[in-house]
Specification:
It contains nine helices and seven strands. The protein has about 280 residues and is an alpha/beta fold. Helix 3 links the parallel strand 2 and strand 3. The two termini are about 25 Å apart. This is Lysine decarboxylase-like protein.
């Protein structure tokens, strides 16, 4: 896409001296991106912040937090303990959990713990059919409730489970649940593997693009997310992420911090002001 005519010419890298070339090109790129956002999309609707303590509960939907985490327990007992601690924080604040629907590893631990404290209605797992066997523990199988598909986890132990056809539907439904939640809803990433990282970075990207304004927290147990946070630093210094978007990802050291940080979350200043019709 060429820049709007009133932007003036966009200089190329070889037109700058070596000392100022990177900074000048970066400023030109950022100005162009902002101009595009103003010229071709409608402004975002005003974001409303509600007082969680004083708002009438009958008018405010319950907080819903989506947790991304591994279907493995990891090598440190601290990871499973963090899942249990997070479930206890959810129970304390009457928070609903939406997650990937597995019953093993950190996924199973947070679901089991929260159901034991708050009851089955507090947990909604969403899992693609091919993963049901792979991410299901031996104690979780129950007769099929899905028209002949594989059996779903026991609701009394793991809460409600929805089986979907594909990964895209799973992620969309989890995000939609968060969007419908009350103030302080958002996303928290416990330790996990490729899938956890992919899910985390997708909602981070959606935040940057203005698709949603919910907070995204990484629960940095034993420095698990240090590498990702260093990557963010490097991306900013290398000119690929704006400094004003650093705060899209917020690190927390404890489950209590993670829940509190979502309550206090403010969208980053550098997010694109783009209009989206749907997730």
């Amino acid at each position: 896409m060429s820049p709007p005519s009133n932007m003036g010419p966009v200089e190329t890298l070889d037109m700058f001296d070596n000392k100022n070339s990177f900074d000048a090109q970066l400023q030109t790129d950022l100005a162009f991106n902002e101009k595009i956002a103003v010229d071709i999309v409608a402004p975002q609707t005003e974001e409303i912040t509600l007082d969680l303590k004083s708002a009438p509960t009958e008018d405010v939907p319950p907080r819903t937090i989506c947790v991304f985490c591994g279907a493995s327990s990891g090598n440190s007992p601290a990871f499973m303990q963090a899942a249990r601690d997070l479930a206890r924080e959810f129970h304390k604040h009457n928070i609903k959990l939406v997650y990937g629907g597995g019953t093993v590893g950190l996924m199973g631990e947070i679901a089991r713990t929260l159901v034991s404290l708050s009851g089955p209605s507090a947990v909604h797992g969403i899992i693609p059919e091919p993963l049901v066997v792979f991410e299901q523990g031996p104690d979780s199988k129950a007769p099929s409730k899905n028209g002949g598909k594989h059996g779903v986890p026991d609701e009394a132990t793991y809460g409600t489970t929805t089986i979907v056809d594909d990964m895209h539907t799973r992620k969309q439904m989890m995000a939609q649940a968060v969007m419908k939640g009350g103030p302080g809803s958002g996303f928290i990433a416990l330790p996990g593997g490729y899938g956890t990282l992919e899910e985390l970075m997708e909602v981070v990207t959606w935040n940057q693009l203005g698709i949603h304004g919910r907070g995204t927290i990484v629960l940095n147990i034993e420095g698990y997310w240090d590498g990702l946070l260093s990557w963010v630093d490097n991306s900013i210094s290398s000119g690929f992420v704006r400094e004003s978007n650093r705060s899209i990802i917020v690190p927390a050291k404890t489950a209590q911090e993670a829940v509190e940080f979502l309550s206090d979350y403010k969208p980053a200043d550098g997010r694109f002001k783009l209009a989206w019709k749907t997730l």
